[in-house]
Predict the 3D structure of the following.
Amino acid sequence: MQVVDHVRLNEAGDKLVILDQTQLPNRMEYRELETAEEMYEAVKKLRVRGAPCIGIFAGFAMYVLALRFDRSSYPAFAQQFRDAAAHLNASRPTAVNLSWALRRMERVVTERKGVAPAELLPLLRAEAQAILDEDIAMCTAISEHGLSLLKEGDCVLTHCNAGPIATSKYGTAIGPLILGAERGMKLKAFSDETRPLLQGARLTSWELDRAGVDVTLICDNMASMVMKNGWVQFCFVGCDRVAANGDTANKIGTSGVAILAKHYGIPFYVLGPTSTIDLSCATGEDIKIELREPDEIREMWYREPMAPETVKCFNPAFDVTDHSLISGIITEKGICRAPYEKSLAALF
Ligand code: MRU
């Protein structure tokens, strides 16, 4: 597969370079980031997005920021590190990978109390690289487990984007399709457009097409029809946070896909790394759902506003799919089945 280098350090190793996902599929635009404000904005505006990708980004972001912190004493450096991590953590609330990666980076500092900041910097860079390397391995394993369910000619419906640019190599939900194509399998996909930010149209259909998968783009409200027609054998979606009981937060509209899949008797799988499982949330009720600006519904993408300026809008970025609708949760360690309290706990 053609790997897109979407989060990396620049050649000098002192700035963060990201592929600006808001510009896809029309432009492959890269941005260099070095300030805390630029990092915060990149996550908030979805220039970098997708739960695992936000975690990878957070690792390198903290390293780049740490290069600019006060190195004269450990306490000053550690305080600046904690403050910057808290600031970045506030950018988006739902994907657990952000706080997970920030905690990992923070541990590098807090577990070495009193060590000279200059000595911590190479360790922070190594930890960021480890988060990326581990994600590549996890996505590869998830893709293998997902592919084990598919046979030649199968068609998978997916929602939002859980591909390589939302993670690392292969991705999660569409990883099995990309891996299958790499092995010469003929697999098909329906990509939900994913209103309001169009991740399915702009990103998933772009990634699948580049990978040589036969992909058809549909509007979100067409999923029922393609399922009813018998054109879909599986639904594969990603996840932003999986609670201990299997309830899963993912892009708004995912729970509707799961309800349709249940109605039409189509297996519905969630694919994600163990870094997206949050056992501290007992159920989906404990997951904070991000609310975004009305303009994303009212006017973004249109030449002129497509609703009255004063109309009220409700714009949650994610919803929670009830565990009872999920046929299995595919992690790098294998496929977890109900009861999820038991199968998910056994992963750790
Ligand atoms: O708002 P986004 O684009 O960051 O939402 C992304 C999703 O919902 C993905 O499905 C999820 O993060 C999994 S990415 C492997």
User: Anything to note?
Assistant: The pocket of MRU is lined by residues 46, 49-52, 95, 160, 162, 166-167, 172, 199, 238-240, 250-251, 317 (CB under 6 Å). Residues 117-147 form the longest helix (31 residues). The two ends are 31 Å apart (CA to CA). The chain has two domains: 7-139, 145-345.
